[in-house]
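Supplementary Methods S3. Input chains for the assembly prediction are listed below.
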Amino acid sequence: MIKDNDRISSWQVFIIIISTINAVEILSSPRRLVTFAGPDGWLLVIGGHLLGALGLFFIIKLGLLYPKDTLVEYSQKIVGRFFGSLVAVLAILFWLLTTAKTTRQFAEFTHLILHETPIEVIIISLLVVVAYIARHGLEPIARMLEILFPIFIAILALLFFSAAPKGDYTNLLPFLNTDVKSLIHGTIDNSLGMEGQESLVMLLPFMMASKDAYKAGFAAIGLDMLLRIAAFIVVIAVLGEHLTKVFLWPLEEIGRFLFSPGEFFGRLDAFFTALWVTVAFSAVLVYYYLVSLTLSRLLKFREHTPLVFPLLPVIFILSLIPSNVFEVERASSMISWVFGILAFTVPPLLLLISYIRGTHKKSGKDVGTG
Amino acid sequence: MINTRIKNKSAQLIVLTVITFMLIMGTGCWDRLEIDDRALVLGVGIDKPEHQKKESGSETKEIPKGGLPKYSMSLCIPVFTNSSDSGGGEEEGGGGQQPDRWILTSTGNTIQEIVRIYANRSSRMIFFGHMKVLVIGEQVAREGIADILDYFTRDVDAHGRIMVVIANGKAKEILDITPYEEDYSPDYIEKLLQEGKGGASKIEGDMVSLLKSLTSSGNAVLPRVRAGSKSDAVVGGSALIKDYKMVGWLGEWETSGVNTIRDKVEGGSLSIVAPGTKEELMSIRLNNVKVKRDVTIKAGQPIFKIRIFSEGEVVEKPQSVGVLSSELLKEIERRVILEMQHRSIATVTKLQREFKADVLEFGDLLSKKHPQYWAQVEKDWDEKYFPKAEVLVESDAKIRRVDVTR
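Predicted structure tokens for the full assembly:
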């Protein structure tokens, strides 16, 4: 059951989704896109996000058939208690891994600046703050992200506008010089980098006006698409195709030597670090909450609150598993593949079965075969 | 906000204490570094070590037995003295004035080794975040700059705006300069290289442009600096880098040619033989140079077309030329056109024949306009195809003004 004051507006859903999708890859995104398709990388973003939107469509459609249920409840209704619980467990594991991965990526990045600080301390600091907010429920999380979102956009805009005049836009040529195989490969890679939208499988019932879910979701994907394309274009223009591949985090490099428009601020990397902290924090917050929420639903707890702190050591340990920065990347890719499989196949499958079995027409507490 | 679910007052106190403690610990204490614990490096110079020079502090195990270490690196560190009551106070007696900068030099086999030696010599932590200039001595540059660049690009603090220059001579001499106009030599060098409208005969570019050039073709041009005396440096001309190694110098004239062809020139001046004279010169200042570059492929060979349009004004003329008129200006224009053409073609020829290195971004142009062709020739571009490429230079000029006198 959902506390009445834990409802979120569609604007908040929009912000939640975009804050979460963005966190995952925007820093290294230009480099990945360039590796697949050179200067045509921005095309991959369009394709990838369209695929993502398709996946989101199924998620929302499915969720709207069961307006008061989250994934945990309706998957049990559709495929029975055992398989439904299995779906929920998979979701929990996935979100657990994603929380750990994002936390670790955040810590690695911060560690570059805070060189002496042990990485464990960075992780704990983040998790403690996140856990504190997550305990209070969805609405405070949404409000927190509402505050952070304009900051995030403002810093991003500052970066873009500072870098844009310095770019050589002919670096975006040659156009369409990439083979189709790489384009497809890259598009899929991009669509896998959109973890965050699947949060709607759990959050839909919390919406005040769930019919606006489509609008909010697609708007979020649309905005993210524009942001990533802009990031890519700016990075390629300023650094050129080859240099982009050298840096681990090309957008950050740009921040390091840019001056803001009018040479007012220098060394924008301070802003950039702030941006990354904001973004990573938002994502970890949402995922952490999702894990505790889903687990609480699965175990039929009345509230998710008691599960929040116990999860902290779990995530802490998970985030420390990769032993170097490349393993973090690899783990991250693996998790993205898991996302791809889960988020793009499970909802349509459930949708199909739901139609076949007509379980969405039933109301009440029937869980099981129909 | 204390969670009011803890009703017990002493439990509340404990929670509050723990939270406060965590807050204090969490304020980045590990990485706290006071400003006066940092040694801000303004400029770095890298040379080959002198034979048999023993640096104190370098008597560590890292120096190989026999043979010389690979690098001799110098840092220019400003020293901020506590000059309390300066106000015209002459320091007499005692030891004279404390110098306001420290040129710290050490040797080692890798940059990091040297930085570690610095840690044993400097009481403050070496910080590259304010580095403005990286001077690489000619000898080192000829052996290759890739490894040096790797250190500074990987470093989190060093940033893309660092100017990289090649010293004609020793890099340390450049750092040793006490310039008149600026406080420290790295500031001076940085400003020297930045004044854009001054002319086309020097290269403008920072670490990022250097890296861009190197990662796409392995070639680059870097500004040349030489120590004129103890208090000034001379910039001009450039060093040609091919495959991450320096292979030669380009003079000021040729550098102007390179800049023009790369469409990076903002101004500049020309000396031409004044019309009606045999060898007397007159000076034209260029204010506006527009360059269009294009490439076509004919019969499997690239043909590059450079169109240069210059606008200029007469700034100096010899007396024998007489009063200027429109017709005279047209003749001057003709000579400017020839000069621009001559300069560009001579530069291209030198790069094609003598160095076989494309620093004119021709390969880049090809990769954008004819990617399939570029894919075929990319590997042997410098050695095989670039030297044979046909380059057509078209030039046009207009002299608009003669400043104030006729």
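Chain B has two domains: 34-79+99-250, 252-406. Residues 56-60, 84-96 of chain B have pLDDT under 50 and may be disordered.
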